[in-house]
Design brief:
alpha/beta; Rossmann fold; 11 helices; 9 strands; 42% helix
Length: 270
């Protein structure tokens, strides 16, 4: 009986391991499409647009981030508008809000929800890591919840920050939250095997320590240190004004500023 129990536990563990393999097989563009397909389902659009969620507005962490900004008005670009939970209270505060999402139905619902509540927001459909907007237009660029972590590969995140920098006016601010896992690096046999598969011809050679498939729904990169986040934002051309990295939390936050008078930076290739 004990042997059967050991074999059963091995099989259960093997099943968990197999569930982690998509992250080391799918390429970065595949991961973006995988996440988009997950959230484009009609039921998901409805859940992100329902009144209870939209009416909840900004959470305490987001209110705290707003207080760190040097401006409380102007043009605000919201990356990942969803159903409008963040966009609507920001418009009510006086920001001219433009929302971006890679799901057309989300943009439509956010605009409808805003109109029903007596404010107007603009919106368009775009994949945020390939952001393409006019230069030096926005006072604030705000990325929704922890969506900074949803961009696969460090290189792609840095290039997105460069694009955000280009979109900001001189002195403009970028607000982002990200997911944290500050535990020790996973050096288990399973992780070493994932690394080997990622390095193989069929693998995703851009696989990085901290890459996950959250609930088998979307790609997430969890950051292990404050320095990891800081260097990405600085390499993207921004200066850190505020950063919160609490190792007891699952989410961190940063505010970064375009400090000089240069209005553009090379957008790079994605």
């Amino acid at each position: 009986m004990r042997m059967r129990i050991r074999v059963s536990r091995f099989l259960l563990g093997l099943g968990e391991f197999i569930q982690t393999l998509p992250i080391v097989i799918m390429k970065p563009d595949d991961l973006v499409v995988f996440s988009r397909q997950s959230y484009a389902k009609p039921g998901d659009v409805e859940s992100w647009s329902e009144d209870a969620l939209v009416n909840a507005g900004l959470n305490a962490e987001e209110h705290d981030l707003l207080k760190t900004l040097t401006t409380q008005k102007g043009n605000l670009l919201l990356l990942g508008v969803g159903g409008g939970r963040e966009a609507i209270p920001m418009a009510e505060m006086g920001f001219q809000v433009t929302g971006v999402d890679y799901i057309p139905a989300m943009v439509d619902r956010a605009k409808e929800n805003a109109t029903r509540r007596g404010v107007e927001i603009d919106g368009f459909v775009q994949e945020i890591s390939k952001l393409d907007v006019p230069e030096a237009v926005f006072d604030v660029v705000w990325i929704s919840k922890s969506m900074y972590s949803c961009i696969p590969t460090r290189a792609r995140r840095v290039q997105m920050v460069q694009r955000i920098r280009s979109a900001l006016k001189p002195g403009g601010e970028f607000v982002c939250q990200f997911q944290i896992w500050a535990g020790q690096e996973n050096r288990s046999k399973a992780e070493r095997l994932r690394q080997l598969i990622a390095a193989s011809p069929i693998g995703n050679r851009t696989y990085e320590d901290g890459d996950k498939l959250w609930l088998n729904v979307e790609f997430v990169h969890v950051f292990r240190s404050e320095d990891e986040v800081r260097t990405e934002l600085e390499e993207g051309g921004l200066d850190i004004a505020h950063i919160k990295f609490d190792e007891s939390s699952i989410r961190g936050a940063a505010v970064a500023i375009k400090t000089d008078t240069q209005t553009s930076i090379s957008k790079g290739k994605t």
